[in-house]
Specification:
heterotetramer, A alpha/beta (about 280), B alpha+beta (about 375), C alpha/beta (about 160), D alpha/beta (about 280), B: about 375 residues, alpha+beta, 2 domains, eight-stranded mixed sheet, four-stranded antiparallel sheet, 10 helices, globular, C: about 160 residues, alpha/beta, Rossmann fold, four-stranded parallel sheet, 4 strands
C-alpha cells in the first residue's frame, strides 16, 4: 500500500476530547460567548489567530466555530443562535460537558502582517474570528504598526464584545476604533450606516496597510469592493470564510470551493486567492 | 502461479480460515410469495462455504468500497450529563481479504487512499481497515456496455496497486448458465495469480498447495472497453475555466437530484457525521453522504451555496474531472460505468466528458442539437 | 430490559394518550387508586392525531414491545375532527404494520374518554397480558443502543 | 388506422415546435435518445432544432411531470409531453397545490405501454388531462389486476413477511431516488432533509431504512398515482410498489373505490374523513 503518512501521530482526528464550559457570557440577545476548558482545568489546545474548533454538544451535533480568544487555561468561542445546534448551545449552563476537537484550518498570516499597519473590519458576529487576531496584535503590540478597528452591528444591543469594542480597545496605544450601527437608536450616539460606506467615509489610506475582514457574505462582498475602489490591493485584504463542515480535516467533502477545502486550506484567504476560485461563496 | 478454476472454492475456504474474505457473491433474493421471478443480486460479501462466486460478467452494483469505508461506521459512544464520557469505537482488527475486485475499483481505492491518508490528517478509522485488507484484483475478461475505463487511462486487465493480480488464462471458454443466463466457464480453465506486494506473497503462500507453477499459460490481456469516448487529455484544465459555461444549465436539467450516482460510485468518499441517541447515551456515526442532496451544503439559518441541482451536479462533475486532479493529481472518475447504468434519469458522465471535450470553453450558448448525430449502441 | 423471555420479563408498552380524554382518564384511574400493570409508559400528546406513524416504528426500534394510541371517542375531539383523521390513519397503519410482519396485537388503538378510568385500566391490563403472551418484540429492533454499539457496516 | 411510432414521434416534434413558436412556452419536456438504443433520457427542448431530438419509443420510461417543480414560479409555461401516468402525475401536483394548471402546456400522448413491468397493470394509458392530444386514443386494459401481488404476499406468515422486508431494507442505499422521482413526493422540503437528531438518520442501515421506507409509503400511500417510478428508479431493485399498493388496497377495501390523479379535485384519503367511516377502535 503506497501511502505517505504525513502525520506522524496516531491520534484519531475525528475523536473529540471531553471539555467543559466554565463560563457563559451573553454578548447580545442572540450571541453568547463560551469559555472552554478541559475537565482537569487546562487549555484544550493552543490555536493560532483565525483557527477553528469543532465543538460538539453530545447528542445534538457538532459544528465548526472560530476561536475568538484564548488565555492561559481556556479558549473562547462566540456562537450566534441561528439553527438547531446553536439553539441548543444557548441552553448551556456553566459546568456542562462538551466535546472539542481542533484546532483546524490555517490562520491569519501573522508573519505578513507583522510590522504593518492593520485595518480590522468586522460585521456582526464576523468580529469573532477577527477578535482573535486583534487580541494577538495587542499581546504583541510592538510587532505591529498603527491599528484601526472598524466594527458594524445592526444596533447598539447587537454589538458583540461591548467591553472590548467600546471601552478596552479605544484605550490601547496607537489604535483607532470606529463603530457603526445599521439603525439609529436612542441610546446610540455613534455613527449610523453600513460598513462599506463607513469605510469610504473614514477614507483609510492603503499605503503600508493590511486589511483583516470578516462578516456576513454580502458585507464582505461590498466592503471588498469599497476597499479595492480606495486603492487597496487584493493581496492585502484577508478574509475568513464559513461553510457547512462536518469532519474539519478535509475529508468529508462538503466545504470545498473549487479544489480548496475551507476547513483545511482556509478559512483565511486573501481576496487574490478567492479570485482564483469558482464563484461559489 | 496457476490456480485451476475448480479449486477456487477450496482456495477461498483456506483463505477464510484466518481472514474474512469479501468476494462478489451471487445470492438469490427469496420471495416466498413467488410473485416475481427470482432476483439475483451480486454484492461483495463475506465468503462462506457453498456461496456462488461471480468473478466474471457484470460488476457489482454496489462498489466494494464499503469494506474499507463502510456505509455506516460508528465513531464513538458518549453519554451526556452525569458521568459524561466519550469512548472511541475501534474497528474490529480481523484481517480481511478483498477478493476479485476489478481494476477500476482498485484505482478507486487508490484515490480513497490519497484522500484519507494524505493532506495533513490521517483518518484513523480508514487507516486501520486499510492496513488489515489484502486486495486480490481480477482482470476483466469481458466488459459491460457502460465500461469506459480504458478511455480514462486504466487497463481493464491489470491493477498495478493490488496486492495480488489475478487473470484468467487464455484457454478459458465460456457458455451461458442454463439457470441465470449468466456466462459461466465451459471448461475448467484456470486463473493466473501474481503477487505484487509482500502482503500478496503471504496470501499466495497460504494457497500454494493448490497452485502449480506458471507454465506456458498466458493471461488474457487483450480486453478493451466497449465504450470508447473521446476525452480531451487536458479536460481538467479546460473545465476549470468552464465554471460558468452554459453547458451546465442544459445537462443538469434531467437530473432528479437523488444520490444514486454517488452511492454506486466507487470513488465517492464524502461522508456525513450524525448521532443517534438512546436517552442520555448515544453514538456518533459517519455514513456515506451525497453531494446531490440539498442538506449537504446547507448552513444553519438556511443559506445554501449550492441551492439547485445545477450547482450540485456541476460540483460533482467538476470534483470528479477537475478539482480532484488539481488537488491529488488524478481524475476521480475511473470509468466503471455504474452511474451510467443506474442513473434514474439516464444521465451519462461519459457523454458529458465527450461534450465538454468538444465544446468551446468560452462559448456563451450551448445547444444539444450541435451533437445531434449520436452513436447508438 | 431483558432480552430473554422468562417469567420475570415484563413488556415495555408505550401509550400515546390524548391530553383531553385518555390522559385525564388515566389520571382519574390514578385518583381512584385503580391498579394496572406498571409496564405502560404514557406519553401525553395534544391529540391522538398528533401521533405520527413514524413514532410507532421508532418506538419499536427503541425497545417498545407494544404501542397503544388512545384518544377521544369520535365526535368528542377537543379540536372537533382530529380523531376522525386518527381513525383513518391508524386503520391503515395497523394493516401496513401487519403486512410488514408485526403482530397486530402489538399496535393497538382505543377510544377512552376522560371519565372512562375503568376502560383505561382494562385496556392496559388486556394489552399488557396480550403482549406478555407474545413475548419480547424482535422486529424493527434498532442497532444503535450503546450496549450493542460496536463496529458498524459489514455484517 | 393506428399511427406508427415514427409518425407519433413526428407529431410530437411538430407540437413541440408549435408550442415553442407560440412564445408562451419556455421549454418542452420529453425524451431524447442516449448512446444506448434501449435507454432514453428526459430532455428539455428549448429551441426548434432541439425539438428534432425528441423521441418516442418503448424506452421512454421516465416520468416527465415532476420537472414542473424545478421552477415553481416560472415566467413562461412549461410544456410537458405526458403519457397517461404523466397526466395523472400532473393532476397529483395540481391537487397538491404544487403547480398551477395555467403554468403548464400539456401535450398528451396515448401510451401503449413501455419497457417497464408496471405498465402491465396500467389502468389509464390515455392522458386524462391535456391541452393537445397527439395520435389517437388506445384501448385501456380492463383486466389488469393491480393488487394481485399484494394478495399473494399477504398469504405469507408474519415472520416470512418481516424477513422479506428486512432483507429488502438491508439493500436500500438511502439514495432517495424513489422520493425524487415520485410525483406524490412533492414537499418543498422533505422531512428527511431536515436534519434533526432522531428524525431521519442518514445512515443506510436497516433501522433508518425501515423508518424512511415506511414513512414514505405512508406519506404517499393515499396519493399514489401508481406510475411505478419509485420502483423503476431504485438502483437496488426494492419492490416499493408492493408496499404502496398494500395501502391502496386497504383504502379501497375500507373507504370505497379510490384512484388518485383523476382530473377532479378529490382530496387524498388521509386528508379527509367521513362520519360513517368504519371504526375498529371502540
Amino acid at each position: 500500500m503506497a501511502v505517505d503518512h504525513e502525520c506522524s501521530c496516531n491520534k484519531n482526528p475525528l475523536l473529540p476530547s471531553l471539555c467543559k464550559v466554565i463560563d457563559v457570557k451573553q454578548e447580545t440577545p442572540d450571541v453568547q460567548t463560551y469559555t472552554i476548558q478541559t475537565l482537569d482545568g487546562k487549555k484544550p489546545f493552543s490555536p493560532l489567530p483565525g483557527q477553528l474548533a469543532m465543538v460538539s454538544l453530545l447528542g445534538v451535533g457538532e459544528a465548526m466555530f472560530s476561536i475568538t480568544a484564548q488565555g492561559e487555561d481556556y479558549i473562547q468561542s462566540s456562537i450566534k443562535r441561528t439553527g438547531l445546534l446553536t439553539e441548543a448551545f444557548h441552553e448551556i449552563q456553566p459546568g456542562q460537558e462538551i466535546g472539542v476537537r481542533g484546532p483546524y484550518g490555517n490562520h491569519f498570516p501573522i508573519e505578513d502582517l507583522k510590522g504593518k499597519d492593520i485595518l480590522f473590519i468586522g460585521g456582526g458576529i464576523g468580529i469573532a474570528p477577527v477578535r482573535s487576531m486583534i487580541r494577538y496584535a495587542f499581546e504583541h503590540r510592538d510587532e505591529f504598526g498603527h491599528l484601526d478597528i472598524l466594527y458594524g452591528a445592526r444596533s447598539k444591543s447587537d454589538i458583540c464584545f461591548k467591553e472590548d469594542v467600546l471601552e478596552q480597545w479605544p484605550k490601547e496605544k496607537d489604535t483607532n476604533v470606529y463603530v457603526t450601527t445599521d439603525v439609529p437608536s436612542d441610546d446610540w450616539d455613534g455613527h449610523v450606516g453600513f460598513v462599506p460606506s463607513y469605510i469610504e467615509e473614514v477614507g483609510f489610506k492603503p499605503e503600508g496597510k493590511k486589511v483583516v475582514l470578516c462578516g456576513p457574505p454580502i458585507m464582505i462582498k461590498l466592503s471588498s469592493e469599497s476597499l479595492l475602489k480606495m486603492g487597496f490591493q487584493k493581496e492585502d485584504v484577508v478574509t475568513t470564510l464559513e461553510l457547512r463542515m462536518k469532519c474539519g480535516i478535509g475529508k468529508c467533502g462538503r466545504c470545498n470551493i473549487g479544489s480548496k477545502f475551507v476547513c483545511l486550506d482556509g478559512p483565511v484567504f486573501t481576496l487574490a486567492e478567492l479570485d482564483e476560485l469558482p464563484d461559489e461563496k | 502461479m496457476i490456480l485451476a478454476k475448480k479449486d477456487l472454492d477450496q482456495a477461498l475456504k483456506i483463505l477464510s480460515q484466518d481472514a474474512v474474505v469479501f468476494a462478489p457473491l451471487i445470492t438469490l433474493i427469496e420471495d416466498k410469495s413467488q410473485i416475481d421471478q427470482p432476483a439475483f443480486e451480486k454484492k461483495f460479501m463475506p465468503y462462506h462455504e457453498g456461496a456462488a462466486v461471480g468473478l466474471d460478467n457484470f460488476n457489482t452494483v454496489k462498489p466494494p468500497k464499503d469494506v474499507l469505508f463502510p456505509n455506516v461506521e460508528k465513531l464513538y459512544k458518549y453519554k451526556t450529563g452525569e458521568g459524561a464520557y466519550i469512548e472511541e469505537i475501534v474497528p474490529e482488527d480481523k484481517p480481511k481479504i478483498l477478493f476479485g475486485i476489478r481494476p477500476c475499483d482498485m484505482r478507486s481505492i487508490d484515490s480513497m487512499d490519497k484522500v484519507f491518508f494524505t493532506k495533513e490528517y490521517v483518518d484513523s478509522y480508514y487507516a486501520k481497515r486499510r492496513e488489515l485488507v489484502t486486495i486480490v484484483a481480477m482482470g476483466c475478461m469481458d466488459t459491460q456496455r457502460t465500461c469506459f475505463c480504458d478511455s480514462m487511462g486504466l487497463d481493464p486487465t491489470y491493477a498495478p496497486t493490488a496486492d495480488v493480480m489475478m487473470n484468467v488464462t487464455k484457454s478459458t471458454r465460456t457458455k451461458a448458465c442454463p439457470v441465470t443466463g449468466c456466462t459461466i466457464p465451459e471448461d475448467d480453465g484456470s486463473y493466473i495469480l501474481e503477487a505484487l506486494t509482500e502482503k500478496g506473497k503471504a496470501l499466495l503462500d497460504k494457497i500454494s498447495s493448490l497452485c502449480t507453477e506458471n507454465g506456458a499459460e498466458e493471461a488474457v490481456r487483450d480486453v478493451s472497453c466497449s465504450l470508447k469516448i473521446e476525452k480531451d487529455p487536458e479536460l481538467d484544465k479546460k473545465l476549470s475555466k468552464m465554471f460558468e459555461h452554459p453547458i451546465w444549465d442544459k445537462i443538469t436539467k434531467g437530473c432528479i437530484g437523488c444520490g444514486t450516482c454517488t452511492f454506486v460510485c466507487p470513488t465517492c468518499y464524502c461522508f456525513d457525521i450524525d448521532n443517534e441517541n438512546y436517552g442520555a447515551e448515544g453514538c456518533k456515526y459517519r455514513c456515506w453522504d451525497s453531494c446531490m442532496f440539498s442538506d449537504y451544503t446547507r448552513m444553519a439559518g438556511g443559506a445554501n451555496p449550492r441551492p439547485t441541482k445545477k450547482e450540485r451536479l456541476r460540483n460533482r462533475y467538476m470534483h470528479k474531472l477537475s478539482y480532484f486532479n488539481e488537488r491529488y493529481g488524478e481524475t476521480l472518475c475511473v470509468g466503471c460505468g455504474r452511474c451510467i447504468e443506474n442513473c434514474p434519469a439516464h444521465l451519462d458522465i461519459s457523454e458529458f466528458i465527450e461534450k465538454a471535450s468538444k465544446v468551446d470553453a468560452e462559448a456563451k450558448e450551448y445547444s444539444e442539437a450541435d451533437f445531434a448525430e449520436k452513436e447508438v449502441r | 430490559m431483558s432480552v430473554k423471555k422468562d417469567n420475570n420479563w415484563e413488556p415495555v408498552i408505550l401509550a400515546f394518550c390524548c391530553n383531553w380524554c385518555t390522559y385525564t382518564g388515566a389520571d382519574l384511574a390514578g385518583l381512584n387508586r385503580m391498579k394496572y400493570p406498571e409496564n405502560v409508559r404514557v406519553i401525553r400528546v395534544p391529540c391522538s392525531s398528533r401521533v405520527n406513524p413514524q413514532f410507532i416504528i421508532r418506538a419499536f426500534q427503541k425497545g417498545a414491545d407494544g404501542v397503544l394510541v388512545c384518544g377521544c371517542h369520535p365526535g368528542d375531539c377537543h379540536y372537533a375532527t382530529g380523531n376522525y383523521y386518527t381513525r383513518r390513519r391508524f386503520m391503515l397503519m395497523k394493516r401496513l404494520l401487519e403486512y410488514n410482519g408485526i403482530d397486530p396485537k402489538r399496535f393497538q388503538a382505543k377510544w377512552i374518554s376522560g371519565s372512562e378510568a375503568a376502560k383505561f385500566r382494562d385496556t392496559v391490563i388486556q394489552v399488557s397480558a396480550e403482549i406478555k403472551a407474545l413475548g419480547p418484540n424482535t422486529k424493527f429492533v434498532g442497532t444503535y443502543a450503546p450496549q450493542t454499539a460496536t463496529e458498524g457496516g459489514q455484517e | 388506422m393506428a399511427y406508427t411510432k415514427e409518425q407519433i414521434q413526428d407529431m410530437i416534434r411538430q407540437e413541440a415546435k408549435k408550442a415553442l413558436a407560440s412564445g408562451e412556452v419556455s421549454a418542452v419536456v420529453g425524451w431524447t435518445s442516449t448512446r444506448f438504443a434501449d435507454k432514453t433520457k428526459p430532455f428539455f427542448a428549448e429551441t426548434e432544432a432541439e425539438c428534432d431530438l425528441l423521441v418516442w419509443n418503448e424506452y421512454c420510461v421516465n416520468g416527465t411531470a415532476k420537472y414542473a417543480l424545478d421552477d415553481r414560479y416560472p415566467e413562461k409555461k412549461l410544456a410537458v409531453i405526458a403519457r397517461g401516468c404523466d397526466s395523472r402525475a400532473i393532476n397529483r401536483l395540481i391537487q397538491d397545490k404544487q403547480v398551477k394548471r395555467e403554468n403548464l402546456y400539456i401535450i398528451g400522448v396515448p401510451c401503449d405501454g413501455k419497457d417497464n413491468p408496471i405498465c402491465k397493470e396500467c389502468q389509464h394509458k390515455n392522458p386524462l388531462t391535456f391541452d393537445v392530444l397527439v395520435g389517437e386514443e388506445v384501448e385501456e386494459q380492463i383486466n389488469a389486476d393491480r393488487f394481485a401481488e399484494v394478495l399473494a404476499f399477504e398469504k405469507l406468515t408474519p415472520d416470512e413477511r418481516y424477513d422479506y422486508w428486512a432483507k429488502q431494507y438491508d439493500k436500500c442505499i438511502h439514495c432517495y431516488a424513489c422520493r425524487n422521482a415520485c410525483p406524490a413526493c412533492n414537499c418543498i422540503e422533505c422531512y428527511a432533509d431536515q436534519y434533526r437528531t432522531g428524525w431521519q438518520g442518514k445512515a443506510a442501515d436497516r433501522e433508518q431504512n425501515q423508518v424512511y421506507g415506511l414513512t414514505r409509503v405512508f406519506h404517499v400511500g393515499d396519493r399514489c398515482i401508481e406510475c411505478g417510478e419509485c420502483e423503476r428508479v431504485c438502483p437496488m431493485d426494492l419492490p416499493i410498489m408492493r408496499q404502496t399498493r398494500k395501502m391502496l388496497k386497504d383504502i379501497n377495501d375500507l373507504f370505497g373505490d379510490y384512484e388518485c390523479g383523476m382530473p377532479n379535485d378529490s382530496k387524498p384519503v388521509l386528508g379527509e374523513y367521513k362520519l360513517e367511516d368504519p371504526d375498529e377502535f371502540m
